[in-house]
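Re: How this chain folds, sequence and tokenised backbone to follow

Filed under: protein folding, tokenised backbone structure, sequence and structure records.

Contents: The amino acid chain and a row of whole-number tokens, matched residue for residue.

Body of memo: The sequence and its backbone structure tokens, given next.
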Amino acid sequence: MPLYNEIALVFHSSFTVFFYALIGGLIPSLIWLWFWLHEDNKHSEPRHIILLIFLLGMAGAFISLFFQHVFNWYFNWYTIDITHYKTVNLIFVIIEEVVKFACAYVVFFRTRLFDEPIDAFLYL
């Protein structure tokens, strides 16, 4: 099944599931953002940079979806035994976190904005 069909299936199969997944991913992120914005008082980051970080994180999730789809195709994990799902999920989590780290590293970690150790928590 092509990747765009899988994405369309997620959006159209059950709006309730999509809504809960969106809320479950958005609310903890906003709480985390609020916490770190109040912790970073010495050299706070510009608001437009914070927005860009969040947008890159969302883009990183979709980029990792592509790589996960490639791994599914290459290893034919659609037909694996139920006992291998933990391994598959672990690999997918690693893919997503590496892609999001790469986005943050390329854009922010090599700039003057990364001036405090606490900024690493905000950017990631």
